[in-house]
Amino acid sequence: MTELADLPPDFVPVFNFRNRLSRSITLALELNPLEIALAPGDEVDVFIHKDDILLPMSMELSDECLQIHPHHSWGNWYAYKNGKDVSGEPYRVPI
Question: Distance of CA 11 to CAs 5, 66, 78, Å?
């Protein structure tokens, strides 16, 4: 898992995924309009605020897409692709 200096306190890792396929796929974070293209070798780390209700989660992998379905909410989260923040400010709830 990537260590990121700019990650706020009280955020915990939810999952880490590396695309080990020989083709690109899409990571779809459901309940948010966020899709992240993952080329072969790309890695994504997702963190969420410790107080958010997330678990249990379900994940579905198809030929083209990895879909993440949270249990109840997905508010205070950060997604990093290859160490760069790609989660987008509009979908974060102020702490």
Answer: 12, 23, 8
